[in-house]
Design a protein that fits this description.
The protein is of the alpha/beta class. Helices cover 17% and strands 26% of the residues.
């Protein structure tokens, strides 16, 4: 792992994972390449260079979909490890039913869907899918997050009444452009 200009002693630490050239203001930029604005070059599939409980907030926009299902498990487990208790992570990905999820050949299968985020709750996992938990599967989830989700809506529906937006999200393929997950470490 190649750490570059990592201001890890600056608290609170707020990470923008996979920031590319568009680092979120006030965040520490992390990417696998040294683009302008990247503060730390890191491979997110390796153990992360931040100490347990050292990060207050994580922002990850249009990066998670570039990792396979098994790789995502590692990413969520590392997020949980480095976040402080009550720390927050916001993850934005193309919505699975939007063309945006399929156009980029570097997107990994499967596309990110709402169901993924249920697995991040230890209570839900143990009740519904125990084979996905680290307790029963060495490659499983060890994280525990409370998650709320929302969507960015196609511009055609942004100014429509909320009832119309909900109808569109349920029945129109391109209505949801992005899936936005807000996670809090339990």
């Amino acid at each position: 792992m190649n750490a570059v200009a990592s201001n890890q002693n600056d608290l609170p630490l707020r990470l923008d994972l996979g920031c590319g050239t568009r680092k979120k203001e006030g965040f520490h930029g992390v990417d696998q390449r040294k683009f302008d604005g990247v503060d730390t070059v890191a491979d997110l599939l390796q153990p992360w260079p931040w100490a347990d409980g050292s990060v207050e907030e994580i922002h990850m926009s249009h990066a998670l979909e570039h990792f396979s299902g098994a790789e995502r498990v590692h990413i969520f487990n590392e997020m949980h490890r480095v976040l402080v208790k009550g720390g927050k992570a916001t993850i934005t990905t193309p919505h699975w039913c939007s063309n945006r999820a399929y156009g980029d050949f570097t997107h990994a299968w499967p596309p990110v869907s709402e169901m993924l985020y249920f697995y991040l709750s230890k209570k839900w996992r143990l009740e519904n899918a125990p084979d996905n938990d680290i307790q029963w599967n060495p490659a499983g989830y060890s994280c525990d997050f409370e998650v709320t989700m929302g969507h960015s809506i196609h511009p055609e529906f942004v100014h429509k009444h909320q009832e119309r937006q909900m109808y569109a999200l349920s029945f129109y393929k391109e209505a949801a452009q992005d899936l936005i997950a807000n996670m809090v470490k339990v």
